[in-house]
Amino acid sequence: MLILGIILSGCSLEKQIEVKTEEVKRLPLNIDNQAPLTLEPIQWFVITEDNIEEVFKELKSREKNIVLFSLSDTDYEAMSLNFSRIRNYIIINNEILKKYKNYYENGDRGNGK
């Protein structure tokens, strides 16, 4: 009976739990800014029925091999739109990275700073 009393009284004792909150310092992301992209120069030739012989002659005079990669006018427009979308995608992702870096390193809580 004594053992039963001890067990039951142990369950009824209240223990206070103390909760402490402490802000943890954010670690820097260590994301270096990317070096500017260096691209090779490209010379475009627009070849039409009217200037094909002239362009081929010019290329031969420069000792260039004549190789044609052809696009229609609508395909060229599509390529231009694709490059524009890629450029916008890169710009948006760079901004996201800047905001993450600012949040973690400067404590910005999303208040637009």
What would you note in describing this structure?
It is a single chain. The chain is built from 3 helices and no strands. By secondary structure, it is an all-alpha fold. The radius of gyration is 34 Å and the shape is rod-shaped. It starts with a helix and ends in a 7-residue tail after the last helix. The mean pLDDT is 83.
Rounded average pLDDT: 83
Ends distance:
68 Å
What is the overall silhouette? rod-shaped
Q: Tell me the helix content.
A: 40-55%
Task: Supply database-style keywords.
single chain, 113 residues, mainly alpha, 0% strand, rod-shaped
Please outline what is shown here.
With about 110 residues, this protein is mostly helical. It is built from three helices and no strands.
List the helices and strands and how they pair.
Layout: H1 2-12, H2 52-61, H3 73-106
